[in-house]
Write a structure and sequence with these properties.
Elements (H helix, E strand, L loop, with lengths): L17 H10 L5 H9 L1 H15 L14 H22 L3 H11 L6 H14 L2 H12 L5 E4 L15 E5 L4 E5 L7 E4 L8 E10 L2 E11 L12 E5 L12 E5 L2 E4 L9 E2 L6 E2 L8 H32 L10 E2 L5 E2 L7 H35 L7 H29 L12 H7 L9 H21 L3 H8 L4 H11 L16 H24 L9 H24 L9 H7 L2 H21 L1 H6 L5 H18 L3 H6 L5 H4 L10 H10 L27
Parallel strand pairs: 1-5, 2-5
Antiparallel strand pairs: 2-3, 3-9, 4-8, 5-6, 7-8, 10-11, 12-13
Helix pairs in contact: 2-3, 2-17, 3-5, 4-5, 6-7, 8-9, 8-10, 9-10, 9-16, 9-18, 10-12, 10-16, 12-14, 12-15, 12-16, 14-15, 15-16, 16-18, 18-20
InterPro entries: ACOX_C_alpha1, Acyl-CoA_ox_N, Acyl-CoA_Oxase/DH_mid-dom_sf, Acyl-CoA_oxidase, Acyl-CoA_oxidase_C, AcylCo_DH-like_C, AcylCoA_DH/ox_N_sf, AcylCoA_DH/oxidase_NM_dom_sf
Family: Belongs to the acyl-CoA oxidase family.
Main location: other
């Protein structure tokens, strides 16, 4: 890209250089970074990652150096070129689905085809019949048709049952008629709908024989495949500028009595009979949750990677950035010069950033576990066993809410921790934060989703209370269900107290799980009592319900982190876990990270632990002492822990988070390329011109 300002070549940053500072940080690590990277990703995935990264970095169409200077129209055009190029590269290099996802993650820009991949294809795959897959899925995979997913309406989002768009069966022609009865029924926010998609999954109320059967998915062709113009009866447009995601054409759509074949209703689980319009309901009313569970499991996993990205930028920059001199512990160069202290050496900065590192690892490991559980559900459901669905739906609902909320808050915390430079686009935070933010709303508003989790927990708690065989039946299941285990433990002695007598006792994983389990069970028991015995309304309990879902899901995160670090039988360990468990140094550092996550999260929610009576004020003082000790343990490994996530500069696109530490050189180089620097202004207030005729020569 063109530079408009020539920077004097003799100027360099003051000593010590950023690259030297990061090299010092990496030399302090007590573990092998490459070994931890392998434990996170596995050798095969890491090899594919590196191979694909090399292809993308060398492709001029996928160059990112200009994106911080682009307006919305330019960004959208870039994103469309990018999406097309990735599809072309996938065909050239014969990438499979996983490799395509790696490429998309590295390019890191939601584009016009993103929803085609993330929602359109999975919905047909999960809810279409074999015949429908042949007609719609196969050409969609070949990108002969491009799809989107139209569920949200102008007047309805989270309340899917309140959607107004109708799909009425017409027996005389064996068709459905899709119609927008009110302005509030306009489909809104659908990614790729505005300018790109020619097909859509449309969620509409199924009406047959005068009966409303609620929302069902229908495949609707919305644009002509030759002219790309909207088909008759369909009005489509882009919804306009947004807070973020301006590389995607989110759209609106209205239908005026549009007919589609009966075949186009996705009918794997429910059907309408030809001619009679008889409705055949699904064997399990929650089967349609499958797509939502899949997408939420992806959001959970991606939250861990988003946190890793934010931590990588802010930790590396804090190691390079120096401010003030710590007179009690000054930094002295080999020549005897006293220099300013690295920001990362200040305990307040550690308290702000190290918990984000811990969150990244905790959520990453839970994301893996949830993904594997979803795969297990898909395998079982293919044989007619849907027993995992209720628990999986409840878990992914609460975890999606919790983890995406943690990520949004922590990305902003990391940006602020970078000081003034964090406000620059060059930090790598602004578009990253803007584009991540919708995760708290789509696929279920984060506050509303917690009700799904709480309902499941209340039902489980009531089953335990009312079971005549409580001590036998549920104790047998306790090893398989952490939820039932902590409820049983609470019910065995509701007045039990925490056994901690010294700060180091908080490092005991059994103590951590007991504390988290008691708090969750206490909140559940109290809420059930309020609803069942004191007849509190559901609406009056919503604040408490949100707390319960958060408490339960925090328990899951802590439980899964501890489980990941515990010894397993060799048969049950995959390659990644075998690397972890064969390395004492990895287990040691990750145990410190696990402790910090459990204890810092506990401190952030301390009032609930104290309110339950399980934890005492004296123990809360010990908790803070141990948190400080955990920060000290992590300090020498901070940079190495973020390096282990192996997030390349191509992905970060950050001057502050560069692997080589050349922060200041990059900041001024990128500033010199700002196109505004190439324009000569006419600043005469009485002139109608904004710019002079002459333009600065490009360097």
């Amino acid at each position: 890209m063109t530079s408009y300002i020539k920077i004097p070549s003799h100027l360099t940053p003051s000593d010590p250089q950023g690259s030297e500072l990061l090299a010092r940080e990496r030399s302090k690590a007590t573990f092998d970074v490459n070994e931890l990277t392998l434990a996170l990703y596995g050798a095969e995935e890491l090899s594919r990652f590196k191979r694909i990264l090399k292809i993308l970095e060398s492709d001029p169409i996928l160059d990112k150096s200009n994106i911080y200077y682009m307006g919305r129209t330019e960004l959208f055009k870039y994103a469309l070129r990018k999406d097309k190029r990735i599809i072309q590269l996938a065909a050239t290099h014969k990438w499979n689905v996983d490799e395509f996802k790696i490429a998309s993650r590295l390019v890191d820009m939601s584009g016009p085809y993103s929803i085609h991949q993330s929602m359109f294809l999975p919905t047909i795959l999960g809810q279409g019949t074999e015949e429908q897959k042949r007609k719609f899925l196969n050409p969609a995979i070949r990108h002969e048709i491009i799809g989107c997913y139209a569920q949200t309406e102008l007047g309805h989002g989270s309340n899917v049952q309140g959607l107004e768009t109708t799909s009425t069966y017409i027996p005389e022609t064996d068709e459905f008629e899709i119609h927008t009865p009110h302005l509030t029924a306009a489909k809104w926010w659908a990614g790729g709908l505005g300018r790109t998609a020619n097909h859509s999954v449309v969620m509409a109320r199924l009406i047959t024989n005068g009966q409303d059967k609620g929302p069902h998915p229908f495949i609707v062709q919305i644009r002509d495949l030759t002219t790309h113009e909207p088909l008759p009866g369909i009005t489509i447009g882009d919804i306009g500028p947004k807070f973020g995601f301006n590389t995607t054409d989110n759209g609106f759509m209205l239908f005026d009595h549009v007919r589609i074949p009966r075949f186009n209703m996705l009918s794997k689980f429910s059907q309408v009979t030809k001619g009679t319009g008889e409705y055949k309901k699904p064997p399990n009313e929650k089967l349609s949750y499958g797509t939502m569970v899949f997408v939420r499991s992806v959001i959970i996993f991606n939250a861990g990677l988003a946190l890793a990205r934010a931590a990588t930028i802010s930790v590396r920059y804090s190691a390079v950035r120096r401010q003030f001199v710590d007179k009690e512990n000054p930094m002295i160069l080999p020549n005897g010069q006293v220099v300013e202290t690295a920001v990362l050496d200040y305990t307040m900065q550690q308290y702000r950033l190290f918990p984000v590192i811990a969150q990244a690892y905790a959520i990453y490991f839970t994301g893996e576990i949830i993904t594997n559980l979803y795969k297990q559900y898909i395998d079982q459901s293919s044989r007619g066993d849907f027993s995992l669905l209720a628990d999986l739906h409840a878990s992914t609902s609460g975890l999606k809410s919790l983890t995406s909320g943690i990520a949004v808050d922590s990305i902003e915390d990391c940006r602020r921790a970078c000081g003034g430079h964090g406000y620059s686009n060059f930090s790598g935070f602004t578009r990253f934060y803007q584009d991540y933010l919708p995760n708290t709303t789509w696929e279920g508003d984060n506050y509303i989703l917690t009700q799904q989790t709480a309902r499941y927990l209340f039902k489980t708690y009531r089953e335990i209370i009312h079971s005549k065989q409580q001590s036998e039946e549920f104790s047998l299941r306790s090893n398989e269900s952490p939820t039932i285990f902590y409820m049983l433990r609470y019910l065995s002695n509701p007045s039990q107290k925490c056994t901690v007598i010294s700060p180091s006792d908080f490092k005991n994983p059994e103590v951590q799980l007991a504390i988290y389990g008691y708090r969750a069970a206490y909140l559940i028991a109290r809420a059930v009592d309020q609803i069942d015995n004191h007849k509190k309304s559901w609406n009056s309990m919503l604040v408490e319900i949100n707390r319960i879902s958060r408490a339960h899901c925090q328990y899951i995160l802590v439980h899964n982190f501890i489980l990941t670090l515990q010894p397993q039988t060799s048969d049950s360990m995959n390659e990644k876990r075998r690397i972890l468990h064969n390395s004492p140094s990895l287990k040691t550092v990750l145990t410190s990270v696990c402790n910090l996550f459990a204890l810092h999260t506990m401190e952030k929610n301390l009032s609930e632990f104290l309110e339950s009576g399980y934890l005492s004020p004296k123990q809360s003082e010990m908790l803070r002492v141990q948190i400080s000790e955990s920060l000290n343990e992590i300090r020498p490994n901070a940079v190495a822990l973020v390096d282990a996530f192996y997030l390349p500069d191509y992905l970060l696109n950050s001057a502050l988070g560069r692997y080589d530490g050349k922060v200041y050189e990059t900041m001024i180089e990128w500033a010199s390329k700002e196109p505004l620097n190439g324009i000569t202004l006419d600043i005469n207030p009485y002139s109608e011109k904004l710019f002079r005729n002459d333009v600065k020569a490009k360097i």
